[in-house]
Request: fold
Amino acid sequence: MTRTRSLAAASLGVAVLAGVISGWPLGRWRDWERGLEDQMLVLRGQRRPPAHVLVVPIDDATLQQGDWYQSQPQERPPAWAVGTGTLPWPRAAYGLLASRLIEAGASVVAVNVVFAGPSGRGPADDRDLTAQLRRYPGRVALAAEMLEPEDARTGSSGLTLIRPEAVLEALGGPERLGLGNTLPAEPGEPPRHPEAYGRRLLPANGVEPFPSLSATTLRLAGRSSRQHDAVMALNVYGPEGTFPRIPAWEVLDPGRWRGHPLRPAVRGSVVLIGPVVSQGEAGNPTPFGRLSGLEILATATANSLGGDGLAPWPTAALWRALLAMLPLLLVSAVALRGQRLSWRLGWVGVGLLALVLAGWFTFLHGHRWLPLLGPAGGLVLLGLLYGGEAYQREESERRRLRRTFERYVAPSVVAEILADPAAAEGMLRGRLRPVTVLFSDLVGFTQLTQKRGKEGHTELHVRQLNRYLGAMVAVITDHGGTIDKFIGDAVMAVFGSPLGRGERQEALAALHCARAMHVALEELNVAWRAEGIEPLKSGIGLASGPAMVGQIGSPQRLEFTVIGDTVNLASRLEGQTRPLQVPVVFDAATAELVRGELPVRPLGPVPVKGMGEIPVYTLGNEEPPPAEV
Reply:
């Protein structure tokens, strides 16, 4: 119970830790969370953007086309190609581009270029742009830019609007402008919707809010965002070029534009114009690579139209922490109801699977980020915690079993038993096994004890007994027997418990052991006679049959032993060695098991207390074959 309570407390600690790092992620952990979210985007793969958002990039192909026309010495370049081989473009080219697209049915055209100050190509360039804008009032949105101070003393800041005023007036006023600024990508943060800059960052710094170019474009198109853009992250559709795009030169070239396959797609669409050349490291980092500002603008506009921008859920740190804790608390509550490691790890696996499926489903269909990394890491930590506790519990159980069995059997047998702890525990609880029981007792030892006690030779007596018992234990162990107990000078050994080699093999080993015990005792007697110590004589009784094997006793004192008629018979047969004047006596079951392997001599039926007359046997005079232990 104490171990379970400690494990429950540790599980609660892991859940709280997962909640804290999910609700208030810091440093490297936030980077890891961002990495996981990026990997989920990549795993989801590229998706189809909305059909009514088109991109008209001023790309390398457009600049090369304009440059090619300029480089032809014999031909005069068409009006639309003049100045389009390099950036910045003539403003008249933007006006012509917007006019062509609106004439093709574009709902609104947004130009992601800031026209700051008079045109470098002279007043005529501004007049041409103004003329084009007046033809389509409310159909064109232009970019503005918020300049932030670079130097506290000399840096300038403020909103950069269109100049000269005539262009702004032709456009329809500042309400036709939108900021092209975006929040810079911070480590561990996703790319934000451009509205986050004008609607959150500017007011936070004491500046009047100003809409983004995507918001202004949608308003001019008569559409509204289906999400709260200022708090959303961009849900990128894919790498650069995912949106349908028509290179700008293909719109400007009348022959090319007249039969262009994408011209029908312009009708009713929001069309975005801007340069996309030479992005390199200046592009916006995303899981699909760096995107140009124009592709980011298209992504933001499409997210607003579809309402599929990304955001964490829940947004409040406390609720996010509690949600992160929930799967760990549920898994712990169920897992700790069982003791088996497989049960606990199974529920940890179920929790991980449910967490991943819930996070994936919410991401795909709800466009929300559930806290995943913290709970997933917590569940893995729970699995390690449960595994470590199970290992410690198993090791503690092994030590207990080893201490228990080492008192009875040889270390090699203990190792074999502990190879299967569950079976070892079953041995302790009790089972019926076929065994051969051996009882050995010294003849006349009680009288010898009394005599030496009167003579004051108690120490000699104990030393001789211990030497004898030590030799007998060595012989029994060598023959694969288990020392069951010592009863004064008597030794009880069992063959076939706790592990058995087969009834026949155990009976043979027991009889070989009995002969070897007598040989060992004779060797001791030779040494004792030389030392002037009185020799000893023993009798051995054996019986084979079923016996109950297990730990028997009180909770304060348990012994691994065998009980049953077979044990009683072996003890009483040992007592028959004196009247029968033979060193070894065994029953008919043992004789039958060893017949053909050892010489067996019948002694006839003898009366055995509580069992009537039974036939008994001893070993013949022939030298027995060596034991197979």
About this structure: The mean pLDDT is 87. The longest strand covers residues 538-554. Residues 517 and 599 are 18 Å apart (CA to CA). The first helix runs from residue 2 to 23.
